[in-house]
Design a protein that fits this description.
The chain has eight helices and 13 strands. The protein has helices at 37-51, 65-73, 115-125, 145-153, 188-198, 206-211, 253-272, 289-295, and strands at residues 10-12, 25-31, 80-86, 89-98, 104-111, 135-141, 156-168, 179-182, 216-221, 224-233, 239-247, 279-284, 298-308. The protein has a 13-stranded mixed β-sheet with strand order 1-2-3-4-5-6-13-7-12-11-10-9-8. The chain starts with 9 loop residues before the first strand and ends in a 5-residue tail after the last strand.
């Protein structure tokens, strides 16, 4: 059931629900859109404090309170936060966010040391997640045993291993050998083809990227699109994100590598043109470590994604 933005906060009585909530604790859920600026800041500080610990780190959210505030404020419409409180102290938190177009739903968390609380938080959020969003995903540091155990209990399987890498302003990036330009309308069909081939499981389709006005670069040989790159800056954040780099798989390996390097370096420079950005991050497969290290990206953390198995048709 989808929760409208103006829905009241929903308090759940553990005694009358199916949730195995530990004695003496209460659970409540609230649409993130109803949180005040002060409430978002308080939640963000609580999350950032826990995310700084690798054993509790959850992906997609920062380790800095100001950035987590911005990330919560910019979540998809309808997202909901669940709290578990004991004697006025928060002992658990989880956020559900879902894609309005695809079947994907992201479970940010759970942040708690107690498996029963983790399951209770999910039970509180489950009625808010639309029925079509059956592909639930969690993303955490590989050392986060709580989220890993949660995923396994709820039938999620390992969807992939990823590295989060970062580069700072002090690193000089090379000038591109290929022509790198902002995409024009006549490039979009080629971009869409490459995106489908290189990122078939991306939560945002090529059409959504264009509709959302995500900044889009293309690498060109004449009018032929060789590859593309997308980048994002969350308002209020000092982190620039490279979301996708895709290169035509029909190119020879050496050419493909150079196009990828050029798109990465150009994306970094454009993000740093915003003086509020202190560093740029990208999430990529571990087997591609060498190409990022070559450009000066350092490893921040090793991550794991777990996802529900969705049976076809």
């Amino acid at each position: 059931m989808e929760t409208p933005d103006n829905a009241p906060a929903k308090a759940l009585d553990p005694a009358s629900s199916d949730m195995a909530t530990p004695e003496g604790m209460t659970l409540s859920t609230t649409p993130t859109s109803l949180l005040s600026t002060t409430e978002i800041a308080e939640v963000a500080a609580w999350i950032a404090d826990r995310n700084a610990d690798a054993s509790a780190h959850v992906g997609y959210l920062s380790t800095r309170a100001d950035e987590v505030s911005a990330e919560i404020a910019n979540m998809e419409k309808g997202s909901v936060i669940a709290h578990c409180v004991r004697h006025a102290d928060r002992v658990g938190l989880m956020i559900a966010e879902w894609d309005p177009v695809s079947t994907r739903a992201w479970l940010h968390g759970p942040w708690t040391a107690d498996d029963a609380i983790a399951d209770g938080l999910f039970a509180a959020l489950a009625p808010h997640i639309p029925a079509r969003n059956t592909e639930h995903e969690v993303f955490c540091d590989e050392r986060n045993a709580t989220v890993t155990g949660f995923a396994r209990r709820h039938g999620m399987v390992l969807a992939g291993a990823f590295d989060t890498r970062s580069i700072g302003r002090e690193v000089e990036t090379p000038e591109p050998e290929n022509v790198i330009l902002p995409a024009e309308p006549h490039h979009l069909a080629s971009f869409a083809r490459i995106h489908r081939l290189t990122h078939p499981e991306a939560h945002r389709s090529a059409e959504q990227i264009v509709a959302d006005d995500v900044p889009l670069l293309v690498a060109l040989a004449g009018e032929t699109v060789l590859g593309y790159g997308t980048r994002v800056v969350i308002p209020g954040s000092s982190t620039g994100l490279i979301e996708h780099i895709g290169v035509d798989p029909d190119l020879p390996d050496e050419r493909r590598s150079q196009v990828r390097d050029d798109l990465l370096a150009s994306s970094v420079r454009l993000l740093f043109a915003n003086h509020d950005i202190s560093h740029v991050e990208i999430v990529a497969r571990p087997e591609r470590a060498a190409e990022f290290e070559r450009l000066g990206f350092r490893l921040l953390r090793s991550m794991r994604a777990y996802r529900s198995v969705v049976e076809s048709g």
